[in-house]
Amino acid sequence: MRNNRGNIVKRLCLCCLLAAMAVLSVAGSSWAEEAQKQPPTLAEAAPPAASGQQGVVLGQHTGVVTPQETAKQPAAAEATVQRQQPPSVASNPEAGKAREAQALFEESLRQMMPLNEGQIQEYRERSDQRERALLPVSPALNSRTVRVALEPGGAPVKVFTTANIATSLVFHDSTGQPWPVTSVTNGGPNYFQVLRPDLPDGNLLNVMPTQGYGTSTIVVTLEKRDIPLVIRLESDSVRSPKRKADALVLFQLAHYGPKASVPIIENIKETADSAMLAFLDRVPPQEAARVRMEPAQEKVNVWKYNGKHYIRTSHTMMWPAWTAVVNGAGNVKCYEAPVTARVMFSVNGRIQTIILKDSPK
């Protein structure tokens, strides 16, 4: 009986011991898992002391730091700082992506537009200068009156043209009236284009060159005139450094045309020398001096040249008696008269007196 009780007690103790050992085993495994999840502290991360440090007493600071400890201390400190920072600052992937995208955008701008404001302005100025240099040189345009006699033996009149410029040819008789053109023959259609506008008077031709450095002639037939007028056309290149062209050429023929206004005084001498034609074109010789008028007149111009007065006007001159006269387009005349202190004109049926005074030098 006693032996049976002792066996029962032994069995109960053995069962309790086995249960306790099972509990300790489960608790130990849980503690090991938690220890692995937590980062090591500075003391745990330190390697074991060298053989020379085996005699150091635990808990006492020796003051000697090994190289391994020196290398690992900044990393451990950084990890500690990161653990102390708030989660929004320590790790924010959205903010990092935004900063990276902004950096990429700014770098793209620098690559696509590397110039600053000053460099862009300088580039524009250089480009403008280059475009101006590539443009053709502006030609020197001229307007003149040419006195022509339709008689054999005369040389053709030269008319200068240039690219992108239209030249007008106008034909008048000796009285300044339009002389209609009946036909035009173009000798070089591949070099020049000749147009005749449909006008009531029909005395205008427009000439435009189609190629550079071209030479040709046109034959102009005038109304009720057997002998035609031959004109020589010349053109230069658009790349020529010195371009010149006739913008307007007034051909005044030394004959009465079909629309001529016959003068009342028949014995008036009509002289068309180079000086009078220059005054008629308002391009007087350099030696000519302008004469002041009182009162000033818009349609009257007076010059003093070689001891004579040259008067350009559209009015009829009444006094003094002139020595020569030349008619221009638009009823304009140029009178040659002796030097005088006053002149008289017929303006709209009334006599008007103008006082002449030399311009101060």
Automatic annotation (TrEMBL):
This is Type IV secretion protein DotH. It comes from the Bacteria. The keyword NADP does not apply. Transmembrane segments: none annotated. It holds the Pfam family T4BSS_DotH_IcmK. It comes from uncultured delta proteobacterium. Residues 81-91 have a biased composition (Polar residues). InterPro entries: T4BSS_DotH_IcmK. Residues 67-98 are annotated as: Disordered. Residues 1-32 form the signal peptide. Keywords: Signal. The keyword Signal applies.
